[in-house]
Design goal:
The chain has about 500 residues and is α+β, with helices and mostly antiparallel strands. The chain has 14 helices and 34 strands. It has a six-stranded antiparallel beta sheet. A six-stranded mixed barrel has the order 8-9-15-10-14-13. Strands 25-26-32-27-31-30 form a six-stranded mixed barrel. Strand 3 and strand 4 form a beta hairpin. The longest helix has 9 residues. About 40% of the residues are buried.
């Protein structure tokens, strides 16, 4: 039986506060243009209308234009394929890594020490440790590391800036930078003395936003991985051995344990059998022990859902935003100022612009903004360290920080002068606060340069009573006396393509 949605609302067929509706994967909260709220699942749609299943099982039809603007957008982007994915138990188990690698990204693990991200790489064949820093306008290499790698180092006639002041740098040339399966060749990087921020001892270089943008990087804290888009890089990844593909979507040649070949497509599998589809359409099981060792390995690596996704044209059209929002991430379209990632949010009751900074151990407020937001600021007896040296700072007790639905409450961060030595912005900071790695870790942050978005998990944020939701959240204690919150911020970022 079908009914109009407005009649259903009038008859009280939609229960707005039902917990079961919120728990049901297929149901979501909708709002009409006149402010009525209801829970329903999309069944089908046309260009003008949408068919919905209400909580009591009745079907209702509604003109899309009678929905709120966000719900109109949701319905117009809705497809049956996406809906089936949302309700697929196997899909819900796929990690961010599996989702992105199915879309052709290459990935490698990073280490988190303190709150900093480190990756292993090579420059001119010399191994080095890089800190991944979205707040760094330009990549940097420590002077001693540059010398050890045999880089051609020019005169120290470049200035780089940060909270701690300014430092001199030199344009250097390298022939090859290897990072995971990515290979960057014949480029330039700035060389400076980073010994004050541990550059000669803790890490060799800063992998900054210039290369992160160029390589369409994705950073996932939950996965502990960085992803690079192979379309933008020269790949040095070895080709997989015959039969070792992750997904086998077409007919191929298989070999039995007694060396008899046959042609089939892998259709399914269980613990004991591989189930093949022959070229005549017949479905035939074969005990795994009857396959060659190479083909046993291929079957072990095969996954039915991934195989189906790889063959589905609509899967290839889904963006990372759509994939992660299907997994309950909330996304924000950021804006770039130079190479800085800026996102709007709230601090207490005041609007704020956050700089998303993986290189910052913890959050830092600009002192004038902190005062305007009513943040309790302690004495200036703390220190933050980075490029350019040290800068005085103070503990800052904040009641609430908010970005979308993600809320951080009752934390002790730091406050400092974020406008010191910033000629590239006319002496003014382009942000009110640094959203550091402490919160990115807690909120399972994902940063996507290709789509210009940052993703957070609101259900990992603080509970309404102010207690952290995560059993191992970013610390609510004052930051260490010398966190590497400083970032290189050159007045004129290096053009890596310059001859």
């Amino acid at each position: 039986m079908k009914t109009s949605l407005f009649a259903a609302l009038t008859l009280g067929l939609v229960t707005l506060t039902s917990a079961s509706a919120q728990q049901a994967a297929a149901f979501r909260r909708f709002q009409t243009t006149d402010g009525k709220n209801f829970y329903a699942a999309v069944i089908s749609k046309t260009d003008a209308g949408v068919s919905l299943r209400l909580q009591n099982g009745q079907l209702a039809n509604l003109l899309i234009r009678n929905l709120s603007a966000p719900d109109q957008q949701f319905v117009r982007k809705w497809t049956k394929f996406k809906d089936e994915l949302l309700n697929n138990a196997e899909f819900s188990k796929l990690t961010v890594r599996e989702l992105l690698e199915l879309r052709g990204y290459q990935s490698f693990e990073f280490d988190i020490e303190g709150n900093h991200i480190f990756v292993e790489g090579e420059i001119n064949g010399k191994k080095l440790k890089l800190m991944v820093d979205t707040g760094a306008q330009t990549s940097l290499i420590h002077l001693e590391s540059a010398k050890a790698a045999g880089l051609e180092i020019g005169p120290f006639d470049q200035e780089i800036f940060g909270v701690g002041g300014k430092a001199m740098a030199a344009v250097s040339k390298f022939s090859q930078l290897k990072l995971g399966d990515a290979l960057v060749e014949n480029r330039r990087v700035l060389t400076t003395d980073m010994s004050r921020v541990g550059g000669g001892r803790e890490f060799d270089a800063i992998f900054g936003a210039d290369y992160l943008r160029e390589l369409d990087a994705v950073i996932s804290y939950r996965e502990g991985r960085m992803f690079l888009k192979p379309d933008n890089i020269k790949s040095i990844a070895p080709k997989p051995a015959n039969g070792a593909q992750q997904a086998l979507s077409e007919f191929r040649r298989w070999t039995t344990s007694d060396n008899k070949p046959f042609v089939a497509a892998l259709h399914d599998k269980n613990e004991k059998e591989a189930i093949f589809r022959l070229q005549n359409g017949q479905i035939t099981p074969l005990p795994l022990e009857r396959l060659s060792d190479v083909d046993k390995d291929a079957v072990a690596k095969w996954d039915k859902l991934r195989d189906q996704l790889a063959k589905n044209p609509e899967w290839r059209t889904l963006t990372t935003k759509e994939l992660l929002e299907l997994r309950n991430y909330q996304s924000f379209e950021y804006r770039l100022d130079g190479n800085h990632i800026l996102v709007d949010g709230m601090v207490n009751t005041l609007k704020a612009t956050f700089l998303i900074d993986t290189g910052a151990h913890g959050g830092v407020f600009h002192i004038p903004f902190a005062k305007s937001a009513g943040i309790e600021i302690g004495p200036m007896n703390r220190t933050i360290v980075g490029i350019g040296g040290e800068a005085p700072a103070a503990d800052a007790k904040v009641a609430m920080m908010k970005m979308g639905d993600a809320i951080i409450t009752n934390r002790v961060l730091m406050a400092a002068d974020l406008e010191k030595d910033r000629p590239s912005y006319g002496g003014k900071s382009n942000h009110d606060a640094i959203f550091g790695a402490d919160f990115l870790r807690q909120l399972d942050g994902v940063i996507n340069y290709k789509e210009g978005r940052i993703f957070l998990k609101p259900d990992q944020s603080d509970k309404p009573d102010g207690t952290p939701a995560d059993p191992k959240p970013a610390s609510d204690k004052p930051a260490e006396s010398k966190p590497a919150t400083e970032k290189p911020d050159p007045a004129k970022p290096l053009d890596p393509n310059r001859d």
